[in-house]
Amino acid sequence: MEPRWQYQFRVIMLGDSTVGKSSLLQCYTEGVFLDTVNQTVGVDFYVQFVELEPGLQVKLQFWDTAGQERFRSVTRSYYRNSAGGMLLFDLTNRASFESIRQWHREVTDTIQPFRMVFLLVGHKSDLSGQRRVGQREAEKLAASLGVQYVETSAKDASNVVQAFQMLTVAIYQALQTGQLVATETWDGVKSSVPLPVLPKAQALEKKQKKCSC
Amino acid sequence: MEGREVPLEVLRQRESKWLDMLNNWDKWMAKKHKKIRLRCQKGIPPSLRGRAWQYLSGSKVKLEQNMGKFDELDLLTGDPKWLDVIERDLHRQFPFHEMFVSRGGHGQQDLFRVLKAYTLYRPEEGYCQAQAPIAAVLLMHMPAEQAFWCLVQICEKYLPGYYSEKLEAIQLDGQILFSLLHKVSPVAYKHLSKQKIDPILYMTEWFMCAFSRTLPWSSVLRVWDMFFCEGVKIIFRVGLVLLKHTLGSSDKLKSCQGQYETMERLRALSPKIMQEAFLVQEVRCWGPSAATLGCLWVGGAAPKRLG
Hints:
Shape of chain A: globular
Protein name (chain A): Ras-related protein Rab-39B-like
Oligomer: heterodimer
Family (chain A): Belongs to the small GTPase superfamily. Rab family.
Number of strands of chain A: 7
InterPro entries (chain A): P-loop_NTPase, Rab_GTPases_membrane_traffic, Small_GTP-bd, Small_GTPase
Keywords (chain A): GTP-binding, Lipoprotein, Nucleotide-binding
Largest sheet of chain A: 7 strands, mixed
Structural class of chain B: mainly alpha
Helix content of chain B: 55-70%
Order of helices and strands of chain A: EHEEHEHHEHEHEH
Largest sheet of chain B: none
GO molecular function (chain A): GTP binding; GTPase activity
Distance between the termini of chain A: 43 Å
Distance between the termini of chain B: 40 Å
Number of helices of chain A: 7
Radius of gyration of chain A: 17 Å
Number of helices of chain B: 20
Largest interface: A-B, 21 and 29 residues
Helix content of chain A: 25-40%
């Protein structure tokens, strides 16, 4: 039986091939780390429940995507129905860090005028000897994109739960402030409780109602 | 495990039949294609499988027409853009298979050579990550040069466009699979439509990797035997059999009401329906094949695609 949930957030995993998107998800949802993970072909799925506050259950639905560029023609259509995006790079792979801006732009361009809540994740922090990206510059990039930054390792499970918690909280807050607006037709956020009705959303809804002649 | 149910005596008989076919291949292809198909359905003897795949796919002829080409490509350096992605995938193909278990071992080296050669052979296509498991399965059955030409045949004749830049062919085949499902299992079709589960979400890996990462190993080999003989329609049939037996009745749907539950079910298919004997039987005795899947197959020696 599935636990009762008040919210369901859909989160999409983004980043170059081999940055560790699937490993991070497997660590988080299954508590395992495998040395070799098959390259994702297409899209994969994971689910995890978190209690954000006492009594506030959130179901996180993850869409894991193939990192290779040519799969974007397939995965791009799933950006819009995601509330959150984990932008992953490999701390030991400079190029994957440099791709982040492009990933960010690709998503924001695709879904505009709508928004997504991002978290920047520097992954494989256990390989400190091979690090090619400094914490300061990653934080700078995060700030310029207006997102939070965290360093994780699926291998030693450090910060994994925290990273997903940060993103979940950020999505929840975006809902509270009206940066994200849940609607019937959008799969990014589903709620089993009435959503806070915001003045802006209300006005928009009224407008839409008027137009449905 | 493979071929476990085939008695040794039968296996020996099959081997000699296959040897006769391979030694008189053109004659058999011209006059007794149906018999070849039947024998592929029964399973190619493991000792001759690699050779048979090369004959069936036409890669043997292709190699003979292009003597020295692979060695030529093998000597070139390759585009670093592709080499980087290929290298990152080398240790991820069948990592528990003895051939690919050691980093930098001969299996991984050959895999690199084959995939690199393809990016030089078709620079406009480069490397697609779904090609790696295909090449790895081939390398388990034949040397690098032969595997290369067999990969070329798969990419160009069997599954054309699957691995190229925009992935348009795989998306189109996803739509075709879905419309075929409408005829084969209206219940499964209705359920997937209702849950808004786009075919691309479950069939991409199935089709692009020709089920090599989905099915148990003995089933993979039997499916590939039929695939090399009959072409992409086998991939469609396997996909339809799996969908029908997973989502094809209201009883089966009880435990996967939501979108995620359905995806989960398709991701972790029941071992029963993937089991070699059951699956091959279902694919062979495909009722509506002529009407439903005939459009995907225009007979003859080489597999052709739609119209």
